[in-house]
Amino acid sequence: MVLDILKKENVKATFFINGKNCMDVANDPEAQRLIKREVDEGHVIASHTYTHPETGITTLTDEQLTSELKTLNDLVFDLTGLKLAFFRPPLGEFNEANKRVIEELGFTANVLWNLDSNDWKKGDNATANYFKYLDKADPSSNSFIALNHDIQKVTATSNLQIMIPIIRDLGYNFVTVDECLGMSAYQNVNSLENKGAAVNATATNTIVPANVTSSTPTSIVRSDDRSNLKSGAETLSYSLLSLIILAFITLFNF
User: Any idea what the Cα angle at residue 244 is, between residues 243 and 249, rounded to 5°?
Assistant: First the structure.
């Protein structure tokens, strides 16, 4: 349903994939079909670990995190021929040791978000949560990475259909994370080649949230100046004006 809505609205999104959470991608033809469809229809796919550890990645050893990332990347490569370069940490949490492992494996962006739909939260209103952010924003100076979960019925059946036209009317443009950063989403293929954007393009007019912390998922985290890994606030600092990035956690229950 999510892919159908995005196709109807001509919106490209970024899907952060798990390998073995709600569905076992290695052994489920339907999950494999959905990943291939995401790629075929022009969406960006990225890593969200193989199993989505319940306590996140900060409790993992370097070897465990390497296995989580490499297992998923190898699986996705076998399915699509693409080697993922973007990562979103479960729970939005990571530490310095995690960053070293992520970068050593060739990932170039550690992506968080600054608009949380809370579509997973029982009793919350995902549509109202979008307005909570957008009502205070100005498309001439603000951009957003909006977090959604494709497994959630409210996202697939109502919220996207309501919000996409409204967001456009407000003056925002929908882009994928690679377009926002001016960096390819893949280690072995230039995802920007047919998008009219140059790799490592420089953008202006940045917006950085006021609360910067490594523990609160709705915040943005700045990476170490010595690291080549783009992270959090730096993600937005490379964005152009008036952008909305629809980021989905892909659990394959479309």
Answer: 145
CB 56 within 8 A of CB 35: no
Direct distance between the N- and C-terminal alpha carbons of the chain, in angstroms, rounded to an integer: 6
CA dist., res. 205 & res. 141, Å (int): 7
pTM over 0.85: no
Q: How confident is residue 229, by pLDDT bands cut at 50, 70 and 90? A: low
